[in-house]
Amino acid sequence: MIQVNFRDLRYLVAVADHRHFGRAAAACYVSQPTLSTQLKKLEQYLGVQLVERTNKQVMLTPIGKMIAERARHVLNEVADIVDTARAAGDPMAGELRMGLIPTIGPYLLPHLVPELREVYPRLRLFLYEERTNRLLERLHRGELDAAVMAVPVQDDGLLNASLFHEPFLLAMPAHHPLAAKDEIEITDLEAEQILLLEEGHCLRDQALDVCNMVGAREDAEFRATSMETLRQMVASGAGITLLPALAAAANSGVPNHMAVEMRPFRNPAPRREMAIFWRKGSAREPTIRAIAEVIRALPAIRELRGETAEA
């Protein structure tokens, strides 16, 4: 007798995610004929059509979408059962899949990864860099165990632990008039044009909030695709921008760093809050909270709080 099994549910979820039999089969490490055959058997067993097959695309039927979403929850629950059993032996061992937004990943990870290797050598960390919306999708699909993102994130299905508050610095070409100041008043940005990241980056929205507060304007002719591109635009003399402290600190390692001047803002300085998020009920919560403690104790993060190494 044919029965529903986890393998077939994974095939259905993969098709829902990829909308393509070939890509779904590759994601499941099976051949396309195998995946297609098993889905047909699943349809026969359930007595409903789950997938619409055409020459141009693959679409789920309305009932197929409903069953795929329920299957996703079932698979996540099964994964949590496995994680719970493994964590009972050693919560700081095994694999952990963690995502980070692009404006924090390259600047936090050089501090975090060596420390985690030292403190938790049995923990295998798999790292993924995505924008906030994509990280949220992957968290809910069970593809990620945790994600480091900027607050706020409106999602009732997630829990979070605050990590640190990161002030913004003003980055400007070395010849800019504001480079003569030791500290920047927020009102100094009035009537200035600010270079920003392209749509989809949460840092763009945070910088726009600062601009709107003082009457600064976005330079609509330039939109950077990454933080490093933004830095190089400043170095070329294209304009000024706001950089989070960890990214600003990395400027000293860039060959043309002398072309960019960084200045702190006078308190209360504009800043953002970073937090680590995970699904409610996740078996990896103890592991994720332990990682949060490691992040908070990093010297670079303690420096953001004004603490000295001896403190």
Question: Brief overview, please?
Answer:
The protein is of the alpha/beta class and 311 residues long. The strands form 3 sheets. Strands 3, 4, 5, 6, 9, 10 and 11 form a 7-stranded mixed β-sheet that branches. It has a two-stranded antiparallel sheet with strand order 1-2. A two-stranded parallel ribbon has the order 7-8. Helices cover 43% and strands 23% of the residues.
CATH class of the largest domain: Alpha Beta
Mean pLDDT comes to 88
- Overall outline: globular
CATH fold group of the largest domain? D-Maltodextrin-Binding Protein, domain 2
Q: Compute the number of strand runs.
A: 11
- CATH architecture descriptor text of the largest domain: 3-Layer(aba) Sandwich
Gyration radius, in Å: 24 Å
- Low-confidence spans: none
Q: How many individual domains?
A: 2
**In percent terms, what proportion of residues is strand?**
15-25%
Major β-sheet, in short?
7 strands, mixed
Helix-strand string: HHHEEHEHEHEEEHEHEHEEHH
Q: Specify the helix fraction band.
A: 40-55%
Count of helical stretches:
11
* Straight-line distance between termini: 67 Å
Structural class: alpha/beta
